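[job 0412] stage=fold_complex status=start
inputs:
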Amino acid sequence: RKEVEQDPGPFNVPEGATVAFNCTYSNSASQSFFWYRQDCRKEPKLLMSVYSSGNEDGRFTAQLNRASQYISLLIRDSKLSDSATYLCVVNGGGADGLTFGKGTHLIIQP
Amino acid sequence: NAGVTQTPKFQVLKTGQSMTLQCAQDMNHNSMYWYRQDPGMGLRLIYYSASEGTTDKGEVPNGYNVSRLNKREFSLRLESAAPSQTSVYFCASRTTFPGQLAEYTRETQYFGPGTRLLVL
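[job 0412] stage=fold_complex status=done
writing structure:
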C-alpha cells in the first residue's frame, strides 16, 4: 500500500520565522509530488508542485530527495495567513489519483 | 467557470436512510474522485472514475456506490447510512499536462467545497 508520512504538528511558529516540513513516501515508483494547503473546514488546494531540481515560489521552496524518498517544504518570513494544514501529496502514476499525507498543522503566532 | 461544485453542503441522516451526494465539474476533466476526510485519518479515496463510463474502487469503498452520469457529473450514493459514515466528503477532478519527463508532468487536482454529513 502506498503511504505518505508527515509530522502532524502542530508547529507553533512566530510571525516572520522560517519553518520547514518534511514528508516521506514509501512507493519508490512515485512520479509526481505536490504540496497542498488546506484551511480549516475548506477544501485542499494546490500550493506547488515539487520537481527534482527543487523549485521556489515566492517565500515557498520545495525540495525532492528521491534517494531518501522525502519531500520538504520551506516557508520563509512566515505570515499569519500561512496558518493552515499542509498536505504532502504523491502520485504513483496511476489513474487512481493522488495519495495524501495526513497533513502538518501550522500555526503562525503574532 | 465554477470549477467543482457539490450538493448538498450539509446533511443530517438517520441510520439506515439513503442519500446521494452530487458533484459536477465544468473544466472538461476526464478523471473524477470521491474522498472522505476524518480527523486523524487524512483524505481517503472512496471511488474514482478515470473516464466517462468507468468507475473503480478506492481505499474505502464499502457502503458506497457511484455513478459517472456523464463527463461532468459523478455522484456518490449511500444506500443505508451508518454512523461510521459521518465525515466530510470531497469530490475532485483532475487534469494532467504530460511533460517530456514524467517528473515534470504538471498535474492539478481540483476539489469541491465538500459535503458535511452527520449520521445519527
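[job 0412] summary: The longest strand of chain B covers residues 87-97.
[job 0412] exit 0
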